[in-house]
Fold this sequence. Notes:
- Helix content is 46%, strand content 14%.
- It has ten helices and eight strands.
- It has helices at residues 27-32, 107-130, 135-141, 156-179, 188-201, 205-211, 215-227, 234-258, 272-276, 286-296; strands spanning 5-9, 16-21, 43-44, 49-55, 66-67, 73-77, 82-90, 96-102.
Amino acid sequence: MSPSMLLFSVPGTQLSFRASLFTAANPFVVDLVQQLPLKSVLAHVVISGQTFWMPTRILSLGPGNTVEREPGAVYFHAPGQTICVCYGAITETAKVNQFGRVLQDDFPKLQAGDWRAVKALIEKEIDVVWLEEPDEIRKVRLGMIEGGAGTGNQSFSVLVHLETFLIMDGAHIIFRILQLISDATMTTSQIKNITLVFLRTTFDHFAFLADLGLPTLRRVGDEYIRTLDTIKNKDDYVELTSSLLVFITRMRHWVHLIFPWYLGKHFPHHTLNAIEGLPKLPTYSESAVRSVSHSRL
């Protein structure tokens, strides 16, 4: 007998939801999904709006139930062999082979669970980098900049920019935005817009950090930016964004530890008297300056 319901559960998060099956409208696909339990991974669409998908080993060459997309729809994409779940906005008009629908009681949990799943992802990354030097940091420390950043085949400028951008993004942008939460005149929408402007809209900080050798920050940042759409109140924003702040700050600590601060001995302090007593370089001698000035006339 075909099951009448599917249970989706995402390990490592508090997200689980049920979907009723269209045994009458799409019996062929419903029979196929009896290949359960199914263990897979989740990925997110890049065109269709708020829908995630999971790969399967199911091959479907038979009839289906081709209908318009709707929030809560569970459908099977036969060419891609994927089960897809639409949890919100729809930005593609192509019809889908729907074989189920998320239960009405579980649908709000699915929407709320989106940002919680991203928070769980960030927390997992924090655990990975908390005590052990991350592989990405080790590669930067050894001068292995896979993207090629660093003019003249040197990694010093990469380290300078990593130190600068990580402390800017964490302590000077995200931390300050979190401080705005207590301002009653600031709405959740305004807070999210400010976040986008500082981190993505005018300049993609996460993509730049990936260019500098930290691709995990781009993956985490992309998921964070994507899930901002599901944030409905300030409390949820703080929960999600606080985890991002911790991750960025911990990565900055690692960069701080490997930064070649010893190079500072080559840039000692000088008093004015000491500077006046230094020999002038030929390039900047008075005669050289006069020569350059005359040549421009």
